[in-house]
Amino acid sequence: MSRGIVQQLRVVRRGILFFALISFIVTCCMLLFLNALIDTLGIVLTPENLRVAARATLGNVLLLSLLFTILDEIRRRMMIDRPVRRITSAAEKVMQGDFSVRIPPLHPLEDHESFDPIVSYFNRMVEELSGIETLKTDFIANVSHELKTPLAVMQNYAELLKDPDLPAAKRAEYAHAIGCTARRLAGLISNILKLNKLENQKIFPKRRPYDLSEQLCSVLLSFESVWEAKHLEIDADIDSDIVVTADRELMEIVWHNLISNAVKFTPEGGSISVSAHKDGGHIRVAVHDTGCGISAETGRHIFERFYQGDTAHRSEGNGLGLALVKRIVDITGSDIAVTSALGEGSTFTVTLPEA
């Protein structure tokens, strides 16, 4: 059965119900009126008078029912059906993937107060969906690119290794390159999974008191071989016995990424400093380097996924480290700030509540 026939049947049903209601009300009113008239004036009603009155009453009831049914249908089409059609039409477009659709404001002379909140929330919902769709598209494009590059490198070196006359030194070099690329690819996938779990709230912080001083020293020492190879000067100004209440494993990701970036972007002979001090009811941890620094434009995007301002070090990372840091800082109730100048280095400061 088509929608038009169903709509017509609904109109007829409403008309019949409306007619029955008016007939009942008019009949009751007429009976009360006639009874009062007979009791007061002593009028005797003949069958002929009753037939004339009944016909006139039936005609009036039919006329009024038809008139009010038409008026009610016009009101319904103007006040209910038209806004509903706008909303359903927009919803169908959204279901088809068009997130640019918006429902315009209804006519100010029409009483659509009950639909105004629905229209407002619908437009906000579509706007949020549009933003999510854009992020998803960008994320897929970035992931595809980041996965394609190391896979292409591994494929090229694998083809070169097929040469039976390849010298042993070159074979070892190519194998080492494949291993490094594979580790980078594994790190990328691991970071994507961590970030996805954090953003979908599948990881809940387990806040427990622990020694932050010991953790910072441990993470810093894990990069000892790297900073010695680059002849970096390390300055650790960490107060002893600093206890914080936070998720130890998540915060270790924060310190590992910040110190890793400092080591990566600091040139040979430069310096890195890590400090941690109590400041009122908070703990401030600062990681400073004398690297290339960050421009104002780059500073606005450094916490975005896959963003890498310094393309010279692109092969050493995947642009997810600081995105992980920002997400962890947000869900643990901490705060992070960045100060930097081109050619002078950068300072990342994380503020945590004291235990």
Question: Key terms for this structure?
Answer:
61% helix; 5-stranded mixed β-sheet; Helix Hairpins; Heat Shock Protein 90; elongated; two-stranded antiparallel ribbon; 9 helices; 355 residues; 3 domains; alpha+beta
Write the layout of secondary structure elements.
Blueprint: H1 3-41, H2 47-95, H3 116-161, H4 168-199, E1 208-211, H5 212-221, H6 224-229, E2 233-238, E3 243-246, H7 248-265, E4 271-279, E5 282-289, H8 296-299, H9 321-331, E6 335-341, E7 345-353
Helix pairs in contact: 1-2, 3-4, 4-9, 5-7, 7-9
Structural description of this entry:
- The chain is of the alpha+beta class.
- It is 61% helix and 13% strand.
- The strands form two sheets. A five-stranded mixed sheet has the order 2-4-5-7-6, with helices on one face. A two-stranded antiparallel ribbon has the order 1-3.
- The two termini are 69 Å apart.
- 18% of the residues are buried.
- About 2% of the residues have low confidence.
Spatial shape: elongated
CATH architecture of the largest domain: 2-Layer Sandwich
Oligomeric form: single chain
The share of residues in extended strands comes to 5-15%
Label the structural class: alpha+beta
Q: What are the low-pLDDT stretches, counting only 5+ consecutive residues below 50?
A: 311-318
CATH topology of the largest domain: Heat Shock Protein 90
- Strand arrangement, major sheet: 2-4-5-7-6
Helix count, per DSSP?
Answer: 9
**Could you describe the largest sheet, including whether it forms a barrel?**
5 strands, mixed
* Run of helices and strands: HHHHEHHEEHEEHHEE
Give the mean pLDDT.
78
Helix content: 55-70%
CATH class value of the largest domain: Alpha Beta
Kindly state the number of beta strands. 7
